[in-house]
UniProtKB/TrEMBL annotation:
Consists of an N-terminal FAD-binding domain with a Rossman fold and a C-terminal substrate-binding domain. Residues 2-66, 284-333 form the FAD-binding domain. HAMAP family: TetX_monooxygenase. It comes from Streptomyces adustus. GO terms for cellular component: cytoplasm. This is Flavin-dependent monooxygenase. Keywords: Cytoplasm, FAD, Flavoprotein, Monooxygenase, NADP, Nucleotide-binding, Oxidoreductase. InterPro entries: FAD-bd (IPR002938), FAD/NAD-bd_sf (IPR036188), TetX_monooxygenase (IPR043683). It is found in: Cytoplasm. Its EC number is 1.14.13.-. Its cofactor is FAD.
Length: 367
């Protein structure tokens, strides 16, 4: 398989548990070659189900943050609309976990030779993978677990990710309890959302003591970063420009931006078409973002983990051979991820609406 993200590693784990040899080719030079991002909330019926099937649920519980389920929802003027604080004995319905810790858990559950680092796949043809260094390797089943810009996807469909009118700037406040205890208390232990008209601020407590801040700008063009006036090469000036873009918001919120360090990452948000399918093709399939890239509202990692586990289970129980197992997996995956994609798209629409805070409040508290 191609890609040592969550979906590919979950599949490799299931195949290993069932005594099936697998190799994961990953373009990164090592597991620590680049950052893995922030926190994920793993849902009991999807992501946690996958880890339970993979025999890793107890190890997951050891690294999960129950308090990460806390949520605060506010309007730009500072009005608090919703505060949910998680009791110490609350069930782990949607606990948070650091993406890097979860990836390490999966990597550590595999034999050391499973992942081949520094292998950048260029193409595939007639049962052979071709790498950037000119080498090649044979395969019986090629699984594209290589994310949004998948090289494997072209074997199955012409679909490509398209921009959805959302651009995000990600920032970090390191060691917030020591450096900014007032802001740490304001954000709390979990997720802190401030939703305005056409833009939002999300702050999230991470397991390493930092808070990651995401500034979303909705209904914006794909080239918005080039026209926004944010000087990304000058972090201090970039923070000042971002604060200007949130003029009129409660000063406590812009104080979060001012407290961030020089880590400033722009991200243009793209997705694949909701309900994307392809004719089942012998010898190749997809998992995770390569198959169903969705808006970043909490579904993607859960779907990727479950994709990998369910494909592994189908292959382990394939009395009629690999093509039948793949077809069975794809049939279930298409239905499941189409529903998740529709819900994710709906949440993105609510976040982009003029009265986003009230709409999201109604979503969380229907009736």
């Amino acid at each position: 398989m191609v890609g040592a993200g969550l979906g590919g590693l979950a599949l490799a784990r299931m195949l290993h548990v069932n005594g099936i040899d697998a190799v994961v080719y990953e373009r990164d030079s090592s597991r620590d070659a680049r950052g893995q991002g922030g926190m994920l909330d793993l849902h009991s019926g999807t992501g946690q189900r996958a880890l339970r099937e993979a025999g890793l649920i107890e190890q997951f519980h050891a690294i999960a943050r129950r308090a990460g389920q806390d949520m605060r929802l506010l309007q730009p003027d500072g009005t608090l609309l919703l505060q949910e604080d998680t009791p110490d004995d609350a069930p782990l319905e949607r606990p948070e976990v650091d993406r890097a810790d979860l990836r390490d858990l999966l990597l550590d559950s595999l034999p050391g030779h499973t992942v081949r680092w520094g292998c950048a796949v260029e193409s595939a043809d007639d049962g052979l993978l071709y790498f950037a260094d000119g080498s090649c390797a044979p395969y019986d089943l090629l699984v594209g677990a290589d994310g949004a810009n998948s090289r494997v996807r072209a074997q199955l469909t012409d679909a490509r990710p398209t921009h959805i009118g959302q651009n995000v700037v990600e920032l970090v406040i390191p060691d917030i309890d020591r450096t900014h205890p007032d802001l740490a208390a304001m954000v709390g232990r979990g997720n802190y959302w401030v939703l305005g008209a056409g833009q939002s601020l999300a702050a999230q407590r991470n397991g390493d003591g930092c808070v990651r801040v995401g500034l979303s700008f909705y209904n914006t063009a794909e080239d918005w970063f080039a026209t926004s006036g944010i000087p990304f090469g000058d972090p201090a000036a970039a923070r000042a420009r971002l604060i200007d873009l949130f003029a009129g918001w409660d000063p406590r919120f812009t104080a979060l931006i001012a407290a961030c360090d020089d880590t400033i990452l722009p991200r243009s948000i793209t997705t694949l078409p909701v309900g994307l399918t392809w004719p089942s093709t012998p010898g190749v399939t997809l998992v995770g973002d390569a198959a169903h890239l969705m808006p970043p509202v909490g579904q993607g990692a859960n779907m990727a983990l479950l994709d990998g586990v369910l494909l592994g289970l189908a292959l382990a129980a394939c009395p009629d051979g690999i093509p039948a197992a793949v077809e069975e997996y794809e049939r279930e995956m298409f239905e499941r991820t189409s529903a998740a994609g529709r819900q994710s798209a709906r949440i993105k629409e609510l976040l982009a609406s003029p009265d986003a805070a009230r709409h999201i409040l109604a979503f969380f508290q229907p009736g």
